[in-house]
Every structure is written in C-alpha cells, then in structure tokens.
Amino acid sequence: MALVIGHRTARALAAENSLEGIRAAKRCLADYVHVDVRLSRDGKLVLMHDDSVDRTTDGKGMVQDLNCIELKAIRAGNEPVPTLAEALSLAEELELGVVVEMKEEGLEALVADVVPKKKSIITSSYHASLREIKEISDLKTGIIITSLPIKPVELALWADADAIFPEKVNPRLFKEAHQKGLEVYPGVVNTVAQAAWLLRLGADGLVTDDPCLIREALDQPVKATGQSNCEYYPCHHFEGQDCTHCFCPLYPCRDEELGRFVRTKRGKRFWSCIDCKLVHRPIVAKYLAEHPESTTEELKALAD
C-alpha cells in the first residue's frame, strides 16, 4: 500500500510546519508528515520552510538571526513556531512517521542526533548532505529533485539514498528506480486524478498538502488504464493486456523497428511502441526479467 505523506505537515488544512498541521495529518490518516527544518541563531532545529519567518508567521526576520526564545514568541497559525524535537515527540505520540527535509547544508550531525531511525526519512535538495547523513548514521534518506535530470537514479545512488522525492516524473523513472531498489515519492500531489495516475505508474507514496483528499484516492482500487482515461493514448491495443507504455522496462527504447513518435489527443509528442510485440514473447520476457539492462538489439537477436 502506498504511503500518504502530509506536505509541510498538512498545509492545506492547517498552518504549514506546525504542530496543528501534524494533528490534522493524523486526523486524515496520513502515514507520515513532512517537515522543513532550519537552524536558529542559537543552534536549535526549528520548523520553517523559508529562510525568513515573514510569510508563514506573524513575525519578521531571518531564521538564522532569531534565537529559539524569539521564535517561540511568534506564531505559526495558532501556535508558536515548533522545534524539530517537539514535532518528533508529537509524531511519535500520534504514531506518525516523519520526513525531515534539511533546508540548509551543515545540519547533518544535528539531525542525525535527534531523528529516530524508525519511521523516518531524511530528505534534502543538497545531495552531498544526504551522503554525509549515510556516513554518520543508519537513517533512511531520499534525494529531492525539482526537475527531471537525465539520470536521476544515478544521482540517488551517488548519494547512497534509499528513495527519490521528485516534483516531476515519467514512467521510466519508476521502472529504473525500482530496479535499483529505490522508492519513489512524487509530490506535491493535490488532485485525485493525479494521485490515481501516479499510483498506476508505481508510486510508493504521495506527498500532498491535503492528506484527507489523497487518502481517499489511495483507498480506492487502482483503475486499469485504457483509451478513455490514459493521457498517453494512443498506445498499445493488445487484447486483455494492460497499458504497456507504463510497464515495458525498455520504455522509451526509441528503436524505430519497434515504435515511433506520436501525438496525444492533447497534442503532446511522445514515444509510443505501437507496433512492438517483442517484450511479450515468453522467451524474451523471461530473459528481460533476468537481465533488466538488456538492449533491444540483444532481445531482437534472442527472438530471432
């Protein structure tokens, strides 16, 4: 079952990065809550996304210029700005997992000292920081990628990460990540249709501002993808078979003997293996399952 992860605790339902948000996520039956952490002037880890408190609190100033007492004097929603320790304590009490995003470099040892190994994931856009977390702890980690680089899986493997938290995805990302034992948690997902599609592609969990909405989507059976509801149609039309655009481990092979570029109903250009039956031959499918790095040339030779 895919996980529901409340983004910035549950910012569609309560003040972001707040204890109130953690409680809201729990009411929505979220599995984890995501929090952003920064360092105060006196070395305390506090929950805050921006480098200043101006947008999300009734105070003003840079987080790095305010000490913990000053941060406690301002309010995020109906409560003072929480420390990471307070958030972890509440999450443990509510039996929620925690995704801790390091918003700055240099927090690795401080985070590793306080975050429990059980039901926690450390994330960051600073991939070198995650690599350092692995060097000093046994914590689970996940790289954040805001674009879709050429080799996202290689970035995760370089960081010795366990997961990828992407803002943008394609079917190939899920296939390659899962082949390497990496989990994929897309975000931020705030519609039922988007959630259903990502589950279809194989998401291990979804990061969302509204855990109630996405919990409802995750509790529904995954619907088969077909002509009426596939954003990538036209594609295959093999009798009794699911959409192989999503599940062929070679996609997009760009082998002109097996497929071609087409336009979707919305005008998008993408590679479609319309004429390919190669990977559906039993001998080829078996070989490909045992050798996922195979090329189309190898498989065509095997089929011949």
From TrEMBL:
This is Glycerophosphoryl diester phosphodiesterase. Pfam families: GDPD, zf-like. It comes from the Archaea. The gene is glpQ. Residues 2-218 form the GP-PDE domain. It is an enzyme of class 3 (hydrolase). InterPro entries: GP_PDE_dom, PLC-like_Pdiesterase_TIM-brl, Zf-like. Its EC number is 3.1.4.46. It comes from Methanothrix soehngenii (strain ATCC 5969 / DSM 3671 / JCM 10134 / NBRC 103675 / OCM 69 / GP-6). One of its GO terms (biological process) is lipid metabolic process. SUPFAM superfamilies: PLC-like phosphodiesterases (SSF51695). Keywords: Hydrolase. GO terms for molecular function: glycerophosphodiester phosphodiesterase activity.
